[in-house]
Amino acid sequence: MSILPHLGTRERLFVIGAGAAILLALLYTLVLDPWRAASVRLAQQIVVAQRELQELQTLRQEYHRQKSAVDRIHAQLTQQKNFSLLSHLEALATQTGTRHTLRSIQPVASPPDKAYDEEAVEIKMDDVLLEPLIAYLFAIENDPQWMRVTRLSIQPRPANRQLLSVICRVSTFTPKEGTSSLTAATHRRRG
Fold first, then answer.
1. Which sequence spans correspond to the domains of the chain?
2. pLDDT confidence of residue 179
3. What is the dihedral of CA 162, 151, 173, 65, to 10 degrees?
4. Tens digit of each residue's pLDDT (9 = 90 or more) over 77-133
5. CATH of domain 82-190
6. Sign of CA dihedral 57, 61, 67, 71
7. Would you give the DSSP letter of residue 146?
8. Residue 8 buriedness (CB in 10 A; 0-12 / 13-18 / 19+)
9. Distance (Å, whole) CA 104 – CA 165
């Protein structure tokens, strides 16, 4: 039933060539092209996955840095037992030469928190120069007892612009019993 033996040499070569061309076209369409497209798609996915991996590694480093900072602060907070914020701030004012400018130091009510007890104090100062004020604020922020200036308002005095009126709020925290640094950080973020 084959017609190939009945064809001339030239026609036979033409039929065989056409069959080979169709076979190559089918091979390319059904095998090579999908394989190449899949290869390109996989290469793109690899690039995306490498970028996401880099982002995850960056996030991991940031997480460890933040966790280390939280652990360090939590350790500081748990070590500062028997600490009076009012008297400590007065002592720092004496050390930095700003005691005479203190108008008042008063405790301030703080919102409740699940992980920490906050003790906050509002300090009002009158006729303070900029340099001693900076020294006082630096002493507060860098004291071994963990304290932070959470609010600060500075106004120059109308009569003498070199002298400043200052209102600031200083806070310190104490971890509640049974609170680890990790659960404390989680509660702070949610709150």
1. 1-79, 82-190
2. 60
3. -100
4. 777 666 788 888 999 999 999 999 999 999 888 777 777 788 899 999 999 999 999
5. 3.30.70.60
6. positive
7. -
8. exposed
9. 12
